[in-house]
Design a protein that fits this description.
By secondary structure, the chain is of the alpha/beta class. It has 2 domains: 106 residues, NAD(P)-binding Rossmann-like Domain (Rossmann fold); 115 residues, Dihydrodipicolinate Reductase, domain 2 (2-Layer Sandwich). The protein has 8 helices and 13 strands. The strands form 3 sheets. It has a 6-stranded parallel sheet, with helices on both faces. Strands 8-9-7-10-11 form a 5-stranded mixed sheet. Strand 12 and strand 13 form a beta hairpin. The model has no long low-confidence stretch (mean pLDDT 94).
Length: 255
């Protein structure tokens, strides 16, 4: 396994350090500009060293759109956190066609949520409803469309600022709704998964909840995620899920 990475932000650097601990390089990092003194830097898939087998996307939707298709066409598997990008039907189709042409696979890290294995199992037997609720402190929604709906600085109680489908959430909140996309892809799909986004001044952190019903019965899962040290906007579990997915792909026996 020869691994390269897209992006060197908070999540990217955490993943790079984890790959080093696992003896997996990375052999290169794709960056738009700037450089790193400790890892070879390139600006495109075509400039990657020969022999790269896996490209790990830690650069958000734009990184996946810019480099994912080229990697897949070249036969390089892609591991991504940018699940919300797949709400764009055109990009999803382009990635699928590229994977088919290159005989490669697009692997989706679970990101900041859990219970997706139970949701996938439930989908195999038939789901009747799935709803995702994402709750953050008001500051966590700064710079998002929530500012058009709520006075974030003046909130004194929880307030819903979006309610719709997971596709709508992922397209309107590209930096905030990757979890909604992960839930949708594991279960009923983007258009049949309900999503609700909440600003709560009393929230201790970023909270994610899944409620699902189907032939299996019903479940409710909730998690409150911690941020990466030094970056309150980056989920620690999301970064961890990338490394866990790479380890799973490397292993001969998987769970």
């Amino acid at each position: 396994m020869q691994v390269a990475v897209i992006g060197a932000g908070a999540i990217g650097r955490w993943v790079i350090e984890g790959l080093r601990r696992d003896g997996l390089g990375p052999v290169a990092v794709i960056l738009r500009s700037g450089g790193m003194s400790d890892v070879p830097v390139v600006d495109s898939v075509g400039a990657l060293p020969a022999g790269v087998t896996h490209l790990v996307d830690c650069a958000g939707h734009s990184g996946l759109a810019a480099h994912g298709p080229a990697a897949l066409v070249a036969g390089i598997d892609v591991v991504t956190l940018s699940l919300g990008a797949l709400a764009d039907a055109g990009l999803a189709a382009e990635l699928a066609a590229a994977a088919e042409a290159g005989g490669a696979r697009l692997h989706m890290a679970s990101g900041a949520i859990g219970a997706l294995d139970a949701l996938r199992a439930g989908a195999a037997g038939g789901l009747t409803s799935v709803r995702y609720t994402g709750t953050k402190p008001p500051s966590g929604w700064a710079g998002s469309p929530a500012e058009e709906v709520l006075d974030l600085s003046g909130l004194t109680a929880p307030a819903v600022h979006f309610e719709g489908t997971a596709r709508e959430a992922a397209l309107r909140y590209p930096k905030n709704a990757n979890v909604a996309a992960a839930v949708a892809l594991a279960g009923l799909g983007f258009d049949e998964t309900a999503a609700r986004l909440v600003a709560d001044p009393g929230a201790a952190g970023n909270m994610h909840e899944i409620e699902a019903e189907g032939a299996f019965g019903r479940f409710r899962f909730e998690i409150t995620g911690a941020a990466l040290p030094g970056n309150p906007r980056s989920s620690a579990l999301a970064a961890m899920s990338v490394l866990a997915e790479v380890r799973r792909l490397r292993a001969r026996v998987t769970t």
